[in-house]
Amino acid sequence: MSEQNPQRPVLRIVRGDPDDVEIAAVTAALAGAAAAQVPEDGPEPMSLWGDPVAAVRHPAGRRPLRPGPHAWRASALPG
């Protein structure tokens, strides 16, 4: 620290008489909380199974059935 521009301490003990181990534990907890990464991307995109817009996309509330070979496979796929 310089004499002209003194910095305030980051951690100050206001009450009590903690020993070095207690101060180290508090410092480690605060450093860990500060280093924790918070996702800032927003919520995960909703799958087509849970998307309420997919239910009203067609007049009947779902995709119309198309009979034919392999129709069972298409009946369970979203979209």
TrEMBL record:
Residues 60-79 are annotated as: Disordered. InterPro entries: ACC_epsilon (IPR032716). Pfam families: ACC_epsilon. This is Acyl-CoA carboxylase subunit epsilon. It comes from Saccharopolyspora mangrovi.
